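User:
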Amino acid sequence: MGDKLIVIAMSWILSWSAFAIDQLSTTYKHIISQKDESVIALPDKNILEQDDTKFNKDSESIMEKSTFSGDDKYCSDDKFWDSVEVKVSRQKNSIGVLFPEVIDTKKSGIRYAYIQAIPLTYNYQTYRNSHHMHGVKQVKLELNKKSHKINLDLIKGHDFGNNYPIKEWDINLVVNTYSDICYEGVKLQVNSLNYNNIKNLEVFYVKDIINPVYELNFDVRTMDEDEYLKQFMIKQSLKQLNKKLPEPHEAALALLNFTVYPDLDEYAPSSFNSSKRIENGKVVIGLYGDVIQDDLRTVNNILETLNSVAPNVDISYSSNEKEVNLPIHFAPCTEFFSDVVNQCKNKAAGTFYPPYYSDYGWIWVDAKYKSDFRQHVLVHEIGHALGLKHNLCFNSSMSYAKWGEEPSYFSATDLMQLRLLYDDRIKERYSSSHVVTYLDLDPVKFKEFKSQPSDACGVHQSGFDRLIQYQQGEIEIEDLLEEYMEGEND
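Assistant: Predicted structure:
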């Protein structure tokens, strides 16, 4: 009898153990499944681009869903929303919002309430005036409060040349439930007559980050004369360094005859003379919006690098908005910003807009990124402004290779193309056959690389190594020039 009980007990334990193991496995799979559903894909290797727009194809935002069904106490009550007061303070420097009562979020299902400022200026969403993107504003309200005071800072842009300032804004109240819009309506209009908290858009500037010799109209009286002369001579030496760089390569010309489009892991023909090379004139960069100091450092690196690979390009930085003709705007791609500005949500991390309405076009970079990826996007978009196209090279800042790197500097592949594109023997936008002739390239090698552009990615010209080390911060600019100076003395 005792033996039978033991057998029965063991059988019971084993049967329930199998069930328990199965349940543990099911629970584990559920946890893993929940984790995967809640993770927003990082943009490491999934950045794509079309028409010079940087895309993050896997970063679909995860919307929190709820099966809650509220009693619709507020959403169907037009009188309630009509009685919400939104007005300018007596001092004309803030916006006041007063609800008839504190909203019961548990019963109503209301989750968010916002005050939004939408510019009314004509064409603020077009390519004509990129500065208007900073004029949109959204402020989240605390639903556990009846009364709100909002210090709504509005930016009107510029008022000169082809820049038209924002003169008036709609102030909207938007209320959302977990799954839909509960209420949306214009509650107020503000302008410079009834609202004082309106500012001009300013160029971002921090002293001692941009080398003074790359600042347009720098006041030399603000620094030691000898130091300025030293930096000026370094700039001239960088231009002379161009002669020490590797000669133009057939692989670079081949890459400039192609581009790559999203989801098509292959090269598409794009003629060399379609490259948007900067032909002449003064290019003046200015950073606007949610800028950090690293952005300015990256621009400084690019300015110094271009003096070597493209010494004939007259490019500088200015804190004077009237001088800027290649503006670079930093603004976070929120749901609101995407809806009213550029439809960037789940699509774009950066965009270069060609010069349809401005001298050299303009750039937008998603300011929500604060890491090296942000600087990668900045370099990538400036690369477009300089005329570079997409490729599938592993280490290029212009790459669409899914498992490629995301360098925050111009790699050897990029420098090789810039070196050729801005060679002073190319006076006009010649065809590839003209470039082969004028740069004394090997036509057979060029055709081989053009027939197999992936082979062009494997070309490494070691003469760019020191320039890359400088961009990465591994050596000082004096070290960069040391090898050149020694060669001159030999």
